[in-house]
Amino acid sequence: MSEVIIRSLHFIGIMLLYSALFAEHLLIKKEMELGQFKKLAVLDAIFGLSALLMLGTGFMLWFHVGNMPEFYTSNWVFHIKLSLFFLVAFISLFPTIFFLRNRKSEQAIILIPGRIIAIIRAELVILLCIPVVAASMAKGFGLG
Q1: Tens-digit pLDDT profile for residues 68-109
Q2: Does 75 map to a domain?
Q3: I want to staple 66 with a disulfide (CB 3.0 to 4.6 A). Which of 59, 61, 107, 108 is the partner?
Q4: Into how many domains does the chain fold?
Q5: Does 113 map to a domain?
Q6: What is the domain range of residue 50?
Q7: Does 144 reside within a domain?
Q8: Contact indicator for 57, 10 with CB cutoff of 8 Å
Q9: Under a CB-based contact definition with an 8 Å cutoff, are residues 96 and 44 in contact?
């Protein structure tokens, strides 16, 4: 039963992560009113919390309730999947730092650097690769 709960929480984390990032993508513009910018900052916080949920439940699946840890540890496809996740986590630091620094701004209009918009779009593209890698892993690629 605990495995079902952990897997369910893992998938909820995945859905929240994708949803928050896609909502950020739809909302972000080069010039944003302060109210909209604050919504963007909240979405980024949801993105971060869902990433932590995914990571925590993922490690629980790896080491406690899923297949034997060796199943994952010895699978190079799993390592690609994990690397893609950590790449997204790393590059997401730049938008998060920008949002945190500017969330208490008194300016009516917040200017969003083009690189922040590009990073959010890059995160979406990288995240789209993870299900392909996960499906490959589920079909046995990377074993033995």
Answers
A1: 888 888 999 999 999 999 999 999 999 999 999 998 888 999
A2: yes
A3: 61
A4: 1
A5: yes
A6: 2-138
A7: no
A8: yes
A9: yes
